[in-house]
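The instructor's notes for this session suggest beginning with a concrete chain rather than abstract definitions. Hand out the sequence below and ask the class to guess, before any prediction is shown, which regions might be ordered.
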Amino acid sequence: MSNVRGGIRMALTPIDIHNKEFSSKWRGYDEDEVNEFLEQIMKDYENLIDENKNQKNTIEQLEERIDYFKTLEETLQKSIMTAQEAAE
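After discussion, reveal the predicted structure:
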């Protein structure tokens, strides 16, 4: 079941998937088959969470590099302007 915090619906966690229990009914689904499927979903979900974290870290690092190069560009532009003014 998904979590609700402060009225905001939070994504399922692998633990939510792992702990999910279904009621049994006459002529229902094969419990082992459902459990195996939920285990695979949980593993895939964990992998997606890890991949998402890695991509966020990569984005953060790239944004830091962009900021660095923007600052460098501004410094170079100011240096060029100063050199042009000194040449005049």
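Then share the key points. Strands lie at 4-5, 8-9. The chain has a mean pLDDT of 88.
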